[in-house]
UniProtKB/TrEMBL annotation:
Keywords: Glycosidase, Hydrolase, Signal. Belongs to the glycosyl hydrolase 43 family. The keyword Repeat does not apply. This is Alpha-L-arabinofuranosidase B arabinose-binding domain-containing protein.
Length: 479
């Protein structure tokens, strides 16, 4: 966490202009904070959550036994954790679809439900192909399902992880497949669909694993997932073996481009989401996207493990867990996934009431305001029960668990809880309605009644609040 600012950067900070004049009235953020608790569901990998127009979230995932497809539903994302699970399909006794049932996804297309999944053969568990189920029932948990058969691709080879989406009214299928002519395990492809189970035209290969982070253990690009924002489309995919090296890469294209032209896509040169030892999250991947209950925030759904070392084949380890966390958007319109956050409550960001594009963050231990925080986790904090109790809260750093915002002689720092009463008191706050806007939040220092967390010339302090400007400086929005 200790960082030394380069001389050039230090000079730039010293020369930086003062913050602009405060806004007359700040707008409540368009994407307010959401709160979930991780892991959402244990022993469920390759998870997908689909929000339907009937008010329900539908959940499906790979089960450790690789023998069935399950669904559950709830009116909230967190509610899926305790929702009853229904088996809607079981593997065949022999032949095709009798082995390795993997990565189901549920979609509602043209008034019917469809589940895409991959399965192996009883005679060869690695003869994995993609298949589709269909249901006309309003409730897919109680309705019957019809097998629509295998998704035929020009190459009759290892294929899996089918997902479908529409861009500008055109429905596509994207999936992972092995090309026998290329020395990789799987690559990501895209094609148009003529109906939910039939590819139209010739598929196009979008990405082949070539970077070092894509080829650890196996040369893998798989698990595509698409999210759209600001006139662009972003296709994430998983790379490397399914152990602690599993991670996410991303392709980017304009929403108006020809998505069947590989040249329309730009590939990230480094992972956009990877394991994090500080938060004890390893091998995050095979993600999908959904939206929050209020429809205002994008949510990433993914799996990982809480430990790094695995005995034997990681595919035989049952403990991949479904997790969720909010997606944030950079100023340039690209997604910022941050890090896989620690188990427990998901973190929030605190934006300034009077400087809405500025966020509370830590830098070299000091808490400050700054816009465009590229290292997202520096500006994320978990709201936890106050270290001093008594109805207080504490704000724990997302990327340095055990470190908290606390007041040191009136200055606010992010430092490790040393267990002393003095530290606990200085890191505890009464969470109040925003002093400048009740929709916001203000934090009164537990150890200094009447003093509040506020910003002044970029830096955070705990100080008395006696003016309207100070009330604005002490008001934040949770995002």
């Amino acid at each position: 966490m200790k960082r030394t600012l380069p001389l050039a950067a230090a000079a730039a900070v010293l020369a930086a202009p003062l913050l602009p004049a405060p806004a007359a009235q700040a707008a409540v953020p368009a994407s307010p904070a959401v709160g979930y608790s991780n892991p959402l569901i244990n022993q469920r990998a390759d998870a997908q959550i689909y929000k339907h127009t009937d008010g329900y979230y539908y959940f499906t995932a790979t089960v450790p036994e690789y023998d069935r497809i399950v669904l559950r539903r709830a009116t909230t994302i967190q509610g899926l954790a305790g929702a009853p699970e229904t088996v809607i399909w079981t593997k065949h006794a022999s032949g095709a679809m009798a082995n390795h049932v993997w990565a189901p996804e549920i979609h509602y297309i043209g008034g019917k439900w469809y589940v895409y999944f991959a399965a192996g053969d009883s005679a060869d568990q690695w003869k994995i192909r993609m298949y589709v189920l269909e249901s006309s029932s309003a409730n897919p948990l109680t309705g019957g399902w019809t097998e629509k058969g295998r998704i035929a691709t020009p190459m009759d080879s290892f294929s899996l992880d089918a997902t479908t989406f529409t861009v500008n009214g055109v429905r596509y299928l994207s999936w992972a497949q092995k090309d026998p002519a290329i020395a990789t395990n799987s690559n990501v492809y895209i094609a148009k669909l003529s109906n939910p189970w039939t590819i139209s035209g010739t598929p196009v290969r979008l990405t082949v694993p070539t970077y070092g982070w894509e080829t650890v253990g196996y040369k893998v690009n798989e698990g595509p997932a698409l999210i759209q924002h600001g006139g662009k489309v972003f296709l994430t995919y998983s790379a490397s073996a399914t152990d602690s090296n599993y991670c996410l890469g991303m392709l980017t294209a304009s929403a108006t481009a020809d998505l069947l032209d590989p040249a329309a896509w730009t590939k990230s040169t480094s992972p956009v989401f990877a394991g994090n030892a500080a938060t004890s999250q390893y091998g995050p991947g095979h993600n999908q996207f959904t939206v929050s209950e209020d429809g205002k925030s994008d949510i990433m759904v993914y799996h990982d493990r809480s430990y790094k070392d695995i005995t034997g084949d990681p595919l035989n380890d049952p403990n991949r867990r479904t997790r969720v966390q909010k997606v944030y958007w950079n100023a340039d319109g690209t997604p910022n996934f941050g890090i896989p956050v620690a188990d427990g409550a998901t973190p929030i960001r605190l934006s300034s009431y009077n400087y809405p594009t500025y966020f509370v963050r830590h830098w070299d231990y000091r808490a400050k305001l700054e816009p465009d925080v590229a290292n997202l986790a520096d500006s994320q904090f978990r709201t936890v029960t106050g270290l001093s109790g008594s109805g207080t809260v504490s704000l724990e750093s997302a990327n340095f668990p055990g470190y908290y915002l606390h007041s040191r002689n009136g200055e606010v720092w992010v430092e490790k809880n040393d267990g002393t009463t003095a530290f606990k008191d200085s890191a505890s706050f009464y969470q109040r309605s925003g002093l400048a806007d009740a929709a916001g939040v203000s934090y009164e220092a537990y150890s200094s009644p009447g003093q509040y967390l506020r910003h002044y010339e970029y830096l955070l302090y705990t100080q008395p609040v006696t003016t309207a400007l100070a009330q604005q400086d002490a008001t934040f929005y949770r995002q």
